[in-house]
Amino acid sequence: MDRFRKFMMQEEEDDDELFLVLLPALYSSLYEEKRPVHTSSLSGAQLVKEILEGHESWSKVEFRMEPEIFRAVSDYLKRERLLEGTARVDVDEQLGMFMYMISHNATNQYLQKKFQHSAETVHRKLNEIINLIPLLVQRFVKVPTSLQPHPKIMSNPRFWPYFQNCIGAIDGTHIPITIAEEIAAPYRNRKGTLSQNMMVACDFDLNFTFISCGWEGSASDAGVLRSAISKGFEVPAGKFYLVDGGYGNTSSFLAPYPGVRYHLSEFRRRRCNETGYANKEELFNHRHALLRNYIERAIGVLKKRFPLLKVGNHYPIESQIRIHAACIVFHNIIRCQNGDEDWLDHQPPLIPPETYVDVPEGDDAHHQDAHHQHQADLNNGNDLRDQIALQMWADYNNYCVLYLCCIICWFNIVAMVKETSRASWSHSYERGLAELLVEHNVPVYRGQNGWVAEGWKSIVSKFNLKFPSAQFTKQQIQEKEKDMKANYKAVRDARKQSGTGWDNSLGMIIAEPIIWEKLKKDYPRVKRYEGKPFLLFPILASLYEGSIATGDLNFLSIPSVDLTSDVVSPTDSSTNQHGMLNPFSTTHDAGQSSNMHGQEAEPTTSASSGQKVDEPVKKKRKQSQIAQVLEDYVDFKKQQSQTFVEEMKEPKQKDQFTIASCVAALETIDEEELSIAQKSKVLRLFKCQLNREIFLNTKDPILRTFWLKEEISAMEKA
Questions:
Q1: pTM as predicted
Q2: Are 577 and 536 members of one domain?
Q3: Which residue, of 72, 210, 693, 718, has the fewest CB within 10 Å?
Q4: Interatomic CA distance for residues 431 and 463, integer angstroms
Q5: Distances (CA, A) of 508 to 490, 504, 526
Q6: What tens digit of pLDDT does each residue of 585-628 get?
Q7: Domain that holds residue 113
Q8: 499-510 in b/e burial notation, b at 16+ Cβ within 10 A?
């Protein structure tokens, strides 16, 4: 029977294709030649194969799923004999055509061009899958069979044990449709657009467990739910779904308290102005909203994966409803196969957002139909809600008291710790830290601006492991590193000052008491090292030298003054009343020249007052470092010049390897050994200094003659 059915389907498709081929051929033979329509180099099957075997992102964009999931769906349809391929359209191409349609909201005409098939073939293959949707919905959209609490509820103290009997959440979502204007009135929603109102239920893994589709957009959420119950939708005894305010509150469908803030955005806006919850109703509504948010997330992922659900399409209304249900089926299949969803946030929209249809987002603000329930059901729902809210409120108050006590105890402990366990650094601790800093002075741990986070993490861990009794925090170790860096900089700058020395063996600054007083004033940090060694200086130099500002290239717009010198330069006519140098003064060069040669300054009198300026204490100025370097350079040049003159005076050594010497030695060789013609050729060899040296240094006559013959032979071959 299956073989006969498959044969008949093949014959029907062959007849259709033959008709489409013969008719144009007959027409063209009678009238005029027509151009072919399907001219792409890739057939539909080749296109699907290229997408599936290409980069994973291709399949995600074109088919909204990974290649392996696409193949798994195709294999399932073949294995269950839900679809059967033909010679021209296999199951992979048929599934690819349908997925491309619901991914891009593609029309029949566009699919003809994309997959290189006739309009009739595209229409027939799409309908074969559309007719399967009710069966696929029954297989892949199922009410949960397990009555055990969901792990996401059990693991969250905000939900457990209050919602232990909750098995999911329910909401209605409007999906745009297109329909003839004469029958469009029931589908017009309260925003004036055309839509169907689809009721969906999901679990806390974002899988849809129930759908009711096909209701017109003017239908209320509560009305759609009542219809579903009347057609067999049941809730297990003792269990309930979470619903919004658009539904009536019953023991099977638990709604939030009306008239109390409910949406998560309302809690976020008021959180900065209020502390805690005003009453049990607010607490219940907030946690109810947090848990019911799973259905909103599921619908959001569904519409993001299949943007077709945000616009209308031009298929018949019966096909539109089934296509919308197909999106839910494939959503569940993709999640069952652990398909990725993060990539949806980074993809440009396949359908222009300006074509999205504005539809209602829920009936919680329009719940005039929500209370059309039996009073007994409403009373049972209110009792269950109050019972959960009271238990939740009591536990919350106990938690707040306990939390406040813990906070007070924590602050007391922190205060005690700060008083009793301040960081106390010893020299061994400082050396250990410095050695660890050197160990981590590599690009992996240290960037241009210091040690990176991973570097500090490793340093702190190794330090506390090396010194278990210390147990310093990251902040304490970082502060100590800054302190050691500042100490190093102060000592480094201080030892460069005039009148100071440095003892490498002791690691100490050597200076007279009067110099020490000035150093302590200019560099307060060196006070702790007066008469004491700074043993960490070499280690810290390897860490910080080259990374601390030195000012070596600094220059000023005024003449530099050595403030450490005991001699003060007198004021002369080259300086004006504002202390600025007069570049046109004739005495400037002379004064500068005298200072450069270390001459003593003479006292002068003020031009305005005529009073004599106190003569400073006359001391022999110390020779500057620059002057010392210049003097050493002059001595070096003198010695170099003297050596050169002596070398010039020595008689030049006579060249031993002259052409004349070579010719004289050549003439001593007998003609029996070397003919006149060969000797004439040898003379050309003597042009090269190297040949002359080889010839004259070879003392053995036989070896010399043999070498000459070899060279002559090489010349002839060249």
A1: 0.55
A2: no
A3: 718
A4: 11
A5: 13, 7, 10
A6: 444 444 444 444 444 444 444 333 444 444 444 444 445 556 66
A7: 2-131
A8: ebebeeeebbbe
